[in-house]
C-alpha cells in the first residue's frame, strides 16, 4: 500500500482479543461459576522440590510451630502452638491456649497433635489429670511416665513438697530458701482446696493463717525426713503449739483456741474419713520423674459421678505438676540441670470448676504461683457457660479471665448463642460466628454403618487478639488415630 493510501486509511486499529471473565464466559456455550477453586498448595524442602525451587509463592498462613492442618479457604498449611508462637514467632504475649467446643469435634485430638509435635522439639508435655484417658497411650509411646491416681490405684500426699523440696535441698543457700517458700505456698493452696471441696465454700482468712502456721511447724519438726501427712496436721492442731496458738489470738485461753481451730479440724477429719481420704492421706505412690520426656497423670479410674474426688485429684495433679516445672527451672538456673520447656494440658476444666464454690480461686492461685518462664499451657472445656454457671459473680469473673488472658483461643463447633457470648470476650466478626456455629450441626441421617461424621469434626477457628480468625481443617494420620481413640470403650467393647 502506498503512503498516500495509508494516510487516507488512518491509523492501524489494534487487534481485539476476546475477553473472558475470571469466573467463566457468560455468552452462548459458556457459563459462569460462583467461585473458582484455589490451586492446591504444597510445602517441601529444597531437596524434595529442587526442580521447582526457587519458583515458590508465599502464604498468608502462619508457618511457625506444629503443623495443625490446612486453611479452609486457601488450602495452605497452617502451623502453630502456644510455645512456638510466643518464643519464635512473637505472635502472642502469653504462651497459653484456651480451647472451647462441643464434645466429639476433635478438641483433644488437636491438642494431642501439639503435644506430639512439641515433644519432637524437646518440649516436655505434662498432662495433669487425664480423665478418659485421652493422652496416656500417646505419653507411653513417647517413652514418658504415666501415673495412675484413684482409690486402690495410687494417691498423692498433698503435704509433700515433691520435686520442689528435693530441688531446694540440692540448690541450698538463698535460692533454695526461696524455692522452699514457694513450695510451702503450693502446699497451703492445695490443702485449702481440699477443704473448700469438702465444705463447698471457701476457707476463712484466719483459718488459712492457722493452716500456714501448722505447716511451718510440721516442716521444722520433720526436717529433711519423711514428708508429713494429713494425720500429722491434725495432730498439730490437737497439740496446739505456741506457733499455732499465736495466730489464733487465744491469749492463753484454751477454750478460745478450740473455738478457733475446731471448724478447721472438723473439715480435715472430713477429708480423711470422707470420700477423699484414701487418695490423699497416704504417702505419694509415684513421684513425677524430672527427667521423663513426657508425663501423664491418669485419673480415669475415678468414677464419673464422684465429682469431689475427681476435682480434688485434678487439683492435686496440677499442683504437683506445676511444682515440678518450678523445680526444673530452679535447678537449671543453678546450673544443676539443662534448661527445658514444658507444655501442660488441663483438659475437661469444667469438672473441677463445678465441684465447689471458690474452687476457681484455687485454680487461679495454682497457675499464678508459677512465675518462671518456659511453661506453655492448654486449657480445654466445652463452652463459656461452664464459667457462667458458677455460683457467684467473683468466680464467674475469674473463670472468664482464663479466656481473656489466653494468648490463643481455639474454637471448635459451638451454637450461635455461645459464639455471640464468646465474641464479647474475644472479638468475633459476624462471618466468624456464622462459620463456627455451622460446625455444631449434627451429621445427616443418610450415613450408613455409622461412618457419617459431624460437619464440624476436625474444623477449628484460631483467634489471636483482634486479628481475623484462621479457619483450619485437620486430618489425622493412622498413627494418631491408633494413639488417640477418644471412644475407646465403644470401639473395643471393653
Structure description:
Strands 2-1-11-10-9-3-8-7-4-6-5 form an 11-stranded mixed β-sheet. It contains 20 helices and 11 strands. The protein has 2 domains: 57-93 and 382-442 and 456-494, no CATH class; 122-376, no CATH class. With 494 residues, the chain is α/β, with parallel strands linked by helices. Helix 5 (162-171) packs antiparallel against helix 6 (173-199), helix 5 runs parallel beside helix 12 and helix 14 (359-368) packs parallel to helix 16. It has helices at 3-9, 82-87, 107-120, 136-141, 162-171, 173-199, 205-222, 230-239, 242-248, 254-273, 277-280, 307-333, 350-353, 359-368, 385-388, 393-404, 416-426, 430-438, 478-483, 488-492; strands spanning 67-71, 77-79, 96-100, 124-130, 145-148, 295-298, 342-346, 375-380, 408-411, 459-463, 470-473.
Show the helix and strand layout.
Blueprint: H1 3-9, E1 67-71, E2 77-79, H2 82-87, E3 96-100, H3 107-120, E4 124-130, H4 136-141, E5 145-148, H5 162-171, H6 173-199, H7 205-222, H8 230-239, H9 242-248, H10 254-273, H11 277-280, E6 295-298, H12 307-333, E7 342-346, H13 350-353, H14 359-368, E8 375-380, H15 385-388, H16 393-404, E9 408-411, H17 416-426, H18 430-438, E10 459-463, E11 470-473, H19 478-483, H20 488-492
Parallel strand pairs: 3-8, 3-9, 4-6, 4-7, 5-6, 7-8
Antiparallel strand pairs: 1-2, 1-11, 9-10, 10-11
Helix pairs in contact: 5-6, 5-12, 6-7, 6-10, 6-12, 6-14, 7-8, 7-9, 8-10, 12-14, 14-16, 17-18
